[in-house]
Amino acid sequence: MYKVSDYNSGNIMDAFEEKKNVILPLGAIEAHSDHLPLSTDILLVEKYTLRLAEMTNSLVLPVMPFGQVWSLSEAPGSINIKEENLVGVLVDIIESLNKNGVKMVTLISSHFGNSNVMKTAARIAYEKYPIKVIYFIYPGIDEVKDEFINLNDHHFFLHACEVETSMMLYAASEHVNMDKAKKGTMKVPKDVDYTPVKWTEFSDNYIIGDARLATKEKGENVFRHILKKASDIILLEKSKL
Prior knowledge:
The protein is an alpha/beta fold. It is built from six helices and four strands; from the N terminus they run αβαβαβαβαα. The chain is globular.
């Protein structure tokens, strides 16, 4: 068993001792245009982390469904949690795992808005507890960008586009409506790199790219690549324990 929630108080401690690493998936409820659900980041990270748990003999916690979505907080359906509140929750979870004798926690998000939250929580935990904390989103995803036809001009803005829609077609196709897939914003304002900018100021359908070009095959290739990169990281860090 890989899901922490499938254990009970009589057998979880043995699982913590044997598997050593616990994965905490972070998602978000956020606008992803009309062809993808608000739960896109939850569905992706659930598929991603369960497979990683199997590949690395780790445990995985239930997905945290809310994230920092300031950039799209004005879009319909988005639920934004302030970074400082999320950091506090993550640190509390890490503290609880530390008390249970867990040696390592892996924070993984499918939502780039959670990047600073994970990093900050890991730094706080580093100063307070002996438990090892690592964190990442999609390691190596830049290495497969040539698989895609028409990316936006800012490669870190993967949102409801050809890439993310392809990943959803592979991971949770029943939640994708390609009949509503559209071309979105292809040019991201340069000032997003150095000043706060709401995405609703430059996108009216919340797609940063062209969702119409997505395919299941592309999504499978992306998942295969990032799973290899991510599992290598986890296994390397587990070997150091």
